[in-house]
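Hey, can you fold this one?
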Amino acid sequence: METYEKDILKREITAEVREELTRSSGKLITRRVLLALCILAMETLLWVFLITSSVQSSTVAQGVLTCLVVVCFRVTQAGMFAWFNEK
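Sure. Predicted structure:
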């Protein structure tokens, strides 16, 4: 009788663990997809910014500002890549 109860308890625990793993896996996939979309959006914004700034005639100060913005975009994107790869 005791073995039968242990077996039932083991099945219940296994089912609960399976449900929890499925739930956490779904959340992880959703987070990774959203993070990938953010990375693509950042890349698109970067190229739009570069194209618009190169089309306009700009001064040295605007060129320096453009470089700083590009560096900030790339650093943020590198952080997103690192966060994407660690999960």
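The chain has a mean pLDDT of 79. Let me know if you want another pass with a different chain boundary.
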